[in-house]
RUN domain-containing protein 3B (Leptobrachium leishanense), 310 residues
Amino acid sequence: MASLGLGLNLSRKKNLSRNAAVERKNLITVCRFSVKTLIDRSCFETIDDSAPEFVNFASILEQILSHRLKGQITWFGYESPRSFWDYIRVACSKVPHSCICSIENMENVSSSRAKGRAWIRVALMEKRLSEYITAALRDFKTTRRFYDDGAIVLGEEANMLAGMLLGLNAIDFSFCLKGEGLDGSFPAVIDYTPYLKFTQSSDSISSDEEELRTLGSSGSESSTPENIGPPFIMDENSWYNKCKRVEQKYRLALEQKPIATRCSQRQGGTSTPRGGVARQDSSPAAATDAIVARMVDSTDRAMGRLWSML
């Protein structure tokens, strides 16, 4: 029993360690993508509170700075939730000419979460967000006091975070510090959909073409499009190209039907049995019609399935 309990504890620790590593990797990766989209958007217009790229970036940064943040112990021994602003306020208090005091004295911002969101906007407008993050991470004693083991700010990802934020200093931001974005009533939610784009490899495309070539050659139900597993998520161009290939297959099948029928009729011809009575042998033509019909029917169903996914 003791060895079984020890094995379960080791397995649980391994799973927790793996989950924490994946969570850190996901947040850092999506933050890198978000910074790139912000830089791309800034080439065409000024970034303000209404820009979806900024809204998502602010949510991502808030999630990173809140990752495994310790709660605050009350007088009664209970743990109350904290905001990342409680950490930034202490860790960045010694940064020269910082905006920390200005944020603390804002009249229209009362909650700790709202002050943290105001700090992100002010730091971006000052082009000093990376400087603030770097100064906070250097204060390892304070960082250790506010975060549990496995937090992003305590791992190797912390240096990556400060480096990728440096590119935001080239962007001109314009924010309103009295807008709805500072509402601290609701937690930040990350929108992952802008970064989830499947790019089909050349080998996969070749495999699809081979499947389309053999789509109508089999009459078994197991190879029909209705029994194929869930499709991959692809972009609009990939679906369009795939539909065009199926459409070409469909047209080719229709063009080959009368040719195949005529050829089978010529090959079948007439035959004279022992009784001396000539009869028409239509079995080859009927078999060809059946094969071509199955091919057209399978391709037609594939076309309908692909267009319904667009």
The chain is about 60% helix and 5% strand. The CA atoms of residues 26 and 100 lie 29 Å apart. The two ends are 56 Å apart (CA to CA).
